[in-house]
Write a structure and sequence with these properties.
mainly alpha; Recoverin, domain 1; two-stranded antiparallel sheet; 11 helices; 60% helix; EF-hand-dom_pair; Recoverin; calcium ion binding; repeat
């Protein structure tokens, strides 16, 4: 569980108060920008702080590895390669740490993101070359991981069929690549295709569990 044993590191009232006061301006700014109230934003930041403390008092923050673990354990995102792509698309730069503001934006997207925000996020995950277009080779890369229980030969044929199907469905300008506009227009018409190349968002059940176990306990965190 997201607020289960691995996040049950207790902190004293004074320590919690100091943390909130130290980051009050950031919390206030992010609460205005994201989909949280000020009190909810405090909870999100306290969760970050608790995870950070697991690395020691002088830790530079929550690590990308820890974020991947949270996505796996708390949000049912179990595909290791794809989860890594998700983290890399959301946390830019060579640092191994996730900035507080980035953590807040990830939580805002996953817990209360709009359709447009989710469309933008998923496309960025799939656009691993950051070219603004998803080519057939990239589609093959993702779709191979979506097929299980088939032989290599059958799998390759199935992947080719899926690539053809998605290209026909999404490639609006017929350039054999899927641009952001192609992808967005398709998803607005059929939202069920949003994660057509693999899971980029948490399951609904995991989001519900997180909200119940964490966000509903504002006074206890």
């Amino acid at each position: 569980m997201p607020c289960g044993d691995h996040l049950e590191l207790s902190i004293g009232v004074m320590e919690e108060t100091r943390f909130k006061k130290k980051h009050s301006h950031l919390i206030k700014r992010l609460a205005k920008e994201l989909h949280f109230t000020y009190e909810e934003m405090e909870v999100i930041m306290l969760i970050y702080y608790k995870i950070q403390k697991m690395n020691g008092e002088k830790s530079g923050g929550v690590t990308k590895v820890q974020l991947r673990e949270i996505l796996h354990v708390a949000f049912d995102m179990t595909d290791v390669d794809l989860t890594n792509d998700v983290v890399m698309s959301m946390v830019k730069g060579p640092s191994s740490f996730v900035p507080m503001s980035t953590w807040a934006r990830v939580m805002s997207l996953f817990l209360r993101g709009t359709l447009e925000e989710k469309i933008s996020h998923c496309f960025k995950v799939y656009d691993v070359m950051m070219s603004g277009k998803i080519g057939r080779d990239i589609m093959v890369r993702f779709l191979r991981n979506c097929l299980v229980g088939t032989s290599d030969e059958d799998s390759e044929d199935a992947v080719k069929d899926l690539v053809e199907l998605l290209t026909k469905k999404m490639d609006m300008d017929r350039d054999l690549k899927i641009s952001f506009d192609d992808y967005r227009q398709t998803i607005l018409k059929d939202p069920l295709l949003m994660e057509c190349m693999g899971q980029c968002l948490p399951s609904r059940l995991s989001v519900h569990s997180f909200m119940i176990s964490c966000m509903a306990k504002v006074s206890k965190l």
